[in-house]
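Methods — Computational structure assignment.
A single polypeptide chain was analysed. Its primary sequence is given first, followed by the predicted tertiary structure written as structure tokens.
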Amino acid sequence: MLKFIIVPFKKDKILYTAIKNLLGFYPRNIYLYKVALSHKSAPQIWLKGQQVNNERLEYLGDAVLSSVVADYLYKKFPYQNEGFLTEMRSRLVSRSRFNKLSLKMGLNKLIFQGNGSYSSSKSIFGDTFEALIGAIYLDRGYNFTKKIIIRRIIDVHLDVDEIEKTDTNYKSRILEYAQREKRQLEFKILQELGEGHRKQYLVELLIDNEPVARGQDFSIKAAEQVAAEKACEELLDD
């Protein structure tokens, strides 16, 4: 059996209590949660002589979340078509929603990062949330993780009926604004960050050739939505 050698960043008792307060249960394998909370700038765990961060757990957690949310929506909306279910799943598992959810839950206070400061990218909060789900899955299995996601996260922190009614297509809204005001709107890709499944795009939104907002995400479309959301907050009255 593989053994983890811990470079302690907090007493185990404190982390046990934090997980219990956050999600309502005590971890069995505390090492998994230490990995989940360790950003790549400050990996805290050693496995077979190599430092480990939360990127692999994030990948796993993303897949588990997508599966659980798809099953949840399928049962909650028995008469809706595939397009509706796909759109709702996209809204529930969006990067911006996970970032906000992590802050709301206080998960940001448990993240460990290099130099004792948080990344300038808020995606670190959503990334850690997904990694935490991956840790729960490996620690307790799929069915237990499913219950936690539904009972402790969706039911407590997300108003699915309200999300259904809310128009979250910010790109469409800002395009309508530009057309109505007869202004020129353009999305420009500034930078591609990372490689493989970790690759992200930095997009800038310009109106009349003036930069208004930037967005960063794992697809160009999603990055444009993030930039459009910021522009809507700045220019439109909600």
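Note: Residues 1-10, 115-120 have pLDDT under 50 and may be disordered.
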